[in-house]
UniProtKB/TrEMBL annotation:
Entry's Gene Ontology molecular function annotations: ATP binding; ATP hydrolysis activity; ATP-dependent protein folding chaperone; unfolded protein binding
Pfam short name (any one): Cpn60_TCP1
Source domain of life: Archaea
Protein keywords: ATP-binding, Chaperone, Nucleotide-binding
Assigned protein family: Belongs to the TCP-1 chaperonin family.
Disordered as annotated region, ranges: 1-29, 524-556
Protein's UniProt name: Thermosome subunit
Compositionally skewed regions (Gly residues) per UniProt: 541-556
Length: 564
């Protein structure tokens, strides 16, 4: 409870349930939270990184090496820790890869800042130095970036392969990286690359090597009637964003029937409506119809008579992909359908894949939507391969859009570290110390790569620095042999944007946390609502107490420790 003395009377500012931590205690608490989050994913970094198993309250299991998946699945309550989790989510949204690196760098920036705060360097000075360093680092990255042509399939495959390294898809990464690059190049158009046009269909059964790319769309549905054809060649495709059912009145209506003949007429009229729909589809030349809603049993019968393949309750995402792949224009009702609205596919067929029936729409003229069929022995294996594919699609898309890459294996971080130390000498004032701390923090990436590979991190760093001092900007760490090698010659590349985004996000999060010197927690922040009884409120004793934010932090750290 915050209070000020006025004469002999204390002035109460905060409510009695509020908890407040100020000054160095608040900074220390936030820094500890940030470091704990970074530490939780640090062992997953690199080709020899380990996986995490996450089990929720219902017993569902996720086994993954993907930083953003680990952090989003973890139950993190601490507000400062959540700010570091946001770094990973931003990195995933912007680029698709480098989430673990971004979080680890953010945690290391906080760790180095803590040492300088203990030497009485002000947080705003640190923040200013960190921002200068991030700006300089981004410039230095631009200088060492390598230009890549969007048609350079070999380099694009190497980039996709680098993103998969250390994840479940590693064994078949040559095949998968080729499929990823082919998929991205197929859906690219003048408006850029929308990876939503690459559908990933997960099929349990077989091995990862059985994965394939279909230039077209696979719909996880069956035809509605067994009397319909299995296959249509050179098919005209119609997409109806509605239902093929008897039209209902918009108001509640009652029909009184006094004679059986009237009832018969009523039913015949309904049948005639449904038959008319099937006839209209046949008249415009449709061979296949994909419907958003349901299809009446009688309509199914008439469609089968016309030899039309019909699929019902197709997801809107599948509909948009079908429209993009075949060139069809979705219509609301069959009455609106014209010949110009039809799309074309060389082949529409119902096929069996791992015991499930699916509709394959293939041989389209100019496939701007494709489907990647991922195979795997178990659900957990295939989920992890899916996450690796998602990262690879992101980095290949980014590379095609930007046309710039940097070497991997800790090479850019080592180069930036040296460049920043040189730059720090030209900076006056205490900001110089912050820039040097930033340079030290970036080396956490090669150091962690070495540690996770079971190598001596000091020897590895010394070798890397020596190689970069000699002018070899692409020298990186080979996690398999422990040698310092030319990553450019080895074909280990990452998109430039992965590194610039990681540095910018990590710096912004670290600076934001460092500038906080007061944490005020209301009673409800613990999870209770204002209507709960007093038992659910945050216990007294301050944020460092057993029930406050500090206690929650300890619990979170303990939970993370148990995970690792």
């Amino acid at each position: 409870m915050a209070q000020q003395q006025m004469g002999n009377q204390p002035l109460i500012v905060l409510s009695e349930d509020s908890q407040r931590t100020s000054g160095k205690d608040a900074q220390s608490m936030n820094i500890t939270a940030g470091k704990a989050v970074a530490e939780s994913v640090r062992t997953t970094l690199g080709p020899k990184g380990m996986d995490k198993m996450l089990v929720d309250s219902t017993g569902s299991v996720v086994v993954t090496n993907d930083g953003v998946t680990i952090l989003s699945e973890m139950d993190i309550d601490h507000p400062a820790a959540n700010m570091i989790v946001e770094v990973a989510q931003t990195q995933e949204d912007e680029v698709g890869d480098g989430t673990t690196s971004a979080v680890v760098v953010s945690g290391e920036l906080l760790k180095r800042a803590e040492e300088l705060l203990d030497q009485d360097i002000h947080a705003t000075t640190l923040a200013q130095g960190y921002r200068q360093a991030a700006e300089k680092a981004t410039e230095a990255l631009e200088d060492i970036a390598i230009d890549v042509d969007e048609d350079d399939t070999e380099v694009l495959e190497q980039i996709a392969s680098t993103a998969m390294t250390g994840k479940g898809a590693e064994n078949a990464r040559d095949l998968l990286s080729a499929l990823v690059v082919q998929a991205v190049q197929t859906v690219a158009d003048d408006d850029g690359i929308d990876t939503d046009n690459i559908k990933v269909e997960k099929v349990i059964g077989g091995s990862i090597e059985n994965s394939e790319l279909v230039e077209g769309v696979i719909v996880d549905k069956e035809r509605v009637s067994d009397n319909m054809p299995y296959f249509a060649e050179d098919a005209n495709v119609a997409i109806v964003d509605g239902a093929l059912e008897v039209k209902e009145t918009e108001i509640d209506a009652e029909v009184n029937v006094t004679d059986p003949d009237q009832l018969q007429e009523f039913m015949e009229q309904e049948e005639a409506q449904l038959e008319e729909m099937a006839t209209q589809l046949a008249d415009v030349g449709a061979d296949v119809v994909f419907v958003d809603g349901g299809i009446d049993d009688m309509a199914q019968h008439y469609l089968a008579q016309e030899g039309i393949i019909a699929v019902r309750r197709v997801k809107s995402s599948d509909q948009s992909q079908l429209a993009r792949a075949t060139g069809a224009t979705p219509v609301t009702t069959v009455d609106d359908l014209t010949e110009d609205d039809l799309g074309f596919a060389g082949s529409v067929a119902q096929k069996d894949i791992a015991g499930d029936q699916r509709i394959f729409v293939e041989d389209v003229d100019d496939a701007k939507a494709v489907t990647l069929i991922l195979r795997g022995g178990t659900e957990h294996v295939i989920d992890e391969v899916d996450r690796a594919i998602e990262d690879s699609l992101g980095v290949v898309r980014t590379t095609v859009e930007d046309g710039k890459v940097v070497a991997g294996g800790g090479a850019p971080e080592t180069e930036l570290s040296l460049a920043l130390r040189d730059h720090a000498d030209s900076v006056g004032g205490r900001e110089q110390l912050a820039i040097e701390a930033f340079a030290d923090a970036l080396e956490v990436v090669p150091r962690t790569l070495a540690e996770n590979a079971g190598l001596d991190p000091i020897d590895s760093l010394v070798e890397l620095r020596s190689a970069h001092d000699g002018g070899d900007t692409a020298a990186g760490l080979d996690a398999y042999t422990g040698d310092t090698i030319d990553m450019d010659a080895e074909g280990v590349y990452e998109p430039l944007r992965v590194k610039t985004q990681a540095i910018e996000s990590a710096t912004e999060a670290a600076v934001m946390l460092l500038r906080i010197d007061d944490v005020i927690a209301a009673g409800e922040l613990k999870g209770g609502s204002p209507d709960d009884d007093d038992d659910d409120e945050m216990p007294a004793g301050g944020p460092g107490g057993p029930g406050g934010m500090g206690g929650g932090m300890g619990g979170m750290g303990g939970g993370m420790g148990g995970m690792m």
